[in-house]
Amino acid sequence: MTAPRPLIGLTGGIASGKSTAARFFAEEGARVIDADRVARAVVAPGTPALAELRAAFGAAILGPDGALDRPALGRLAFGDPAARARVNAIVHPRVAEAVARELAEARAAAPEALVVYDVPLLFEADLADQVDLVVVVYLPRAEQSRRLQARDKLSAADAEARLAAQLDIEEKARRADLVLDNRGAPADLRRQVQMLVARLRAGQPAEFLVDKPIPTLYKEPT
């Protein structure tokens, strides 16, 4: 029986290019479990999680259609650590249950398939020990802020507040097993993903990849 491939935990900072990397993994045939997609599903109208969020924060977090107004909730959570902790306590356990189901289904359908768990808050939610290989998409913080301001039409102060709500990208890179360098063009990021996928499919274990990182990956010497 074919042994399962290492489970990749893909993460990064906000606006660092993680979603682009996830798309490249999918284009290479990997099964991508998107934590953001799962998180949206667990707070859909009629779900217990949405009812709990409304009870905790009031009707102001709901849109006219009764669905969660994510920007409104985000303004509360990013500006108040206690509110953010309350949101996480409501949402994260349900996301974990749904992800576990998807992972089990993926492994049952194709044990040899490459599975990528795409999760923005992998370190913040203490999920690193639940994956075999932690891959961080790296972009310097100043560039993160610039891209975030342009993407979400935020002021510099609002962008910095959102960045401050996450673990710093330099610390994420330090904790990673492998780092995808997104300081170049998208094609450079794609090549790094392709090289990693090829090595994993060739049967190289995660330990080998960590001990001898792919040369094109950004990894400061220790």
Tell the overall outline. globular
Query: What structural category characterises the helix and strand content?
Result: alpha/beta
Number of helices: 10
Strand order, sheet with most strands: 2-3-1-4-5
Largest beta sheet, briefly? 5 strands, parallel
What is the chains' assembly state? single chain
Descriptive tags:
single chain, 222 residues, alpha/beta, 5-stranded parallel beta sheet, 10 helices, 5 strands, 10% strand, globular, disordered C terminus
Tell me what the structure shows.
With about 220 residues, the chain is an alpha/beta fold. It is about 55% helix and about 10% strand. Helix 2 packs across helix 5 and helix 3 packs antiparallel against helix 5. About 30% of the residues are buried.
Short description:
Helix content is 53%, strand content 10%. The protein has helices at 18-27, 35-42, 48-57, 70-79, 81-109, 141-152, 156-164, 169-175, 186-201, 206-211, and strands at residues 8-12, 31-34, 115-118, 133-138, 178-181.
Question: Topology of this protein?
Answer:
Blueprint: E1 8-12, H1 18-27, E2 31-34, H2 35-42, H3 48-57, H4 70-79, H5 81-109, E3 115-118, E4 133-138, H6 141-152, H7 156-164, H8 169-175, E5 178-181, H9 186-201, H10 206-211
Parallel strand pairs: 1-3, 1-4, 2-3, 4-5
Helix pairs in contact: 1-9, 2-5, 3-5, 4-5, 6-7
